[in-house]
Amino acid sequence: MIELYESQRAMRNMRKAAMQRGVIAILDIGSSKIACLVLRFDGTDRSLETDSIGSLAGQSGFRVIGAATTRSRGVRFGEIDSMGETERAIRTAVQAAQKMAQIRVDHVIACFAGADPRSYGLAGKVEVAGSTVDEQDVARVLSACDVPDFGHGREVLHAQPVNFALDHRSGLIDPRGQIGQELAADMHMLTVDAQAIQNLAHCMKRCDLELAGIASSAYVSGVSALVEDEQELGAACIDMGGGATGLSIFMKKHMIFADAVRMGGDHVTSDISMGLQVPMAVAERIKTFHGGVVATGMDDRDMIEIGGDTGDWHHDRRTVSRAELIGIMRPRVEEILEEVRARLDAAGFEHLPSQQIVLTGGASQIPGLDGLATKILGQQVRLGRPMRVHGLPQAATGPGFASAVGLCLFAAHPQDEWWDFEIPVDRYPARSLKRAVKWFRDNW
């Protein structure tokens, strides 16, 4: 736990150093595309000046000066599958973005989906040392949260305080400077498969880049696609990517739950490819131009030319009705949404005061998806686009760039996490001693 704490702190310090130098790159490593944005900070970084524990309030202080995307290679289900290919794809995207920005970038903040995320809610309570709550008290209450044994081979990706209570008053965002006797905190912790993080860090090293932060795609998509009221009152963001569908639930501007379904738009494409016996590239084109999930009476007569270059004239001149295409696509989309619904039910989403659901990500652009999602998820569903950010090219304003834009906001104003506070020294040995005793018991 302590090693992880220190590596996260080192990344935080690197981010601060990069921001003082003025440029940082954002890397969204997806299963279908790798997007790189280069940000320039003009020195008005509020998060370095103010002391608020809070979410990403108001984007300012940066603009996008370089942007590039490339087809993703070597990434499956949101995780790195082939190191060499992923390295080449990342280098391609970063070099193109640097060329546009006309500046060299050393530090990147990356996000990825997948890696089997699991959410935990933790609570801690301490007596306030002085008469007013200070930084040290917040550190003590966060380290007093009882961390569950989340298993071997997993690492903490996010550990954010989501609520503070001072004596009988709950719902405080920042208790510092307030007077009280007993301070309690609720923390949301997200753990992921450690191997995915190690692979990502190793891949960055191979690309000669310094990793200045990592985030979950589901979290940063929610940051950019949910409007302020939705983040405050409670909403779910469903980020439908190529290889994985991430979902995050926000409440009081904090993420309180995150999960991922290992299915996405690429699975719909491969269904079309198998159903129509065409290559994946042709299936992707047919899905993009003619796809949908709701058939009407007209679709039986709407014929789509499949095309191809096999040399067999009859084979290449085949046509398929749009109704047949929808018949291939709809079952897979329904399966993804059913799976998402099961995860939302497990998280107790129906108990939130507001149950708005926002669909974003590249695969959310299938026509008719919002209507089908409303039926399956049984809630109000809207299609979300990322917030507007200074200097963002028009091509990067679609739903497919929600996580890249969210990562920009996260880079500029990261929400306070557990490692932003000094853990009291007396917590160090207890943790490591417990760990040593467990290791001793397991190995002897």
Reconstruct the topology from this structure.
Elements: H1 2-21, E1 23-29, E2 33-41, H2 46-49, E3 62-71, E4 75-76, E5 79-80, H3 83-101, E6 107-112, E7 118-127, H4 135-144, E8 154-166, E9 169-172, E10 182-193, H5 194-206, E11 210-216, H6 217-225, H7 228-233, E12 235-240, E13 245-251, E14 254-261, H8 265-276, H9 280-290, E15 303-305, H10 313-316, E16 319-321, H11 322-346, E17 356-360, H12 369-377, E18 381-383, H13 402-412, H14 427-443
Parallel strand pairs: 1-6, 6-11, 12-17, 17-18
Antiparallel strand pairs: 1-2, 2-3, 4-5, 7-10, 8-9, 8-10, 12-13, 13-14, 15-16
Fraction of residues in helix: 25-40%
Treating each run of at least 4 consecutive H or I residues as one helix, how many helices?
Answer: 14
Based on Cα principal axes, name the global outline. Answer: globular
Count the beta strands: 18
What is the fold-level CATH name, i.e. the topology of the domain at 118-193? Dna Ligase, domain 1
CATH architecture of the domain at 118-193: 2-Layer Sandwich
Uncertain segments are 45-59, 428-437
CATH class group of the domain at 118-193: Alpha Beta
Derived from helix and strand composition plus strand pairing, the structural class reads: alpha+beta
What is the first-to-last residue Cα distance?
22 Å
Main sheet overview: 5 strands, mixed
Strand content is 25-35%
Determine Rg (CA atoms, Å): 23 Å
Going across the biggest sheet, name each strand in turn: 3-2-1-6-11
Average of pLDDT: 82
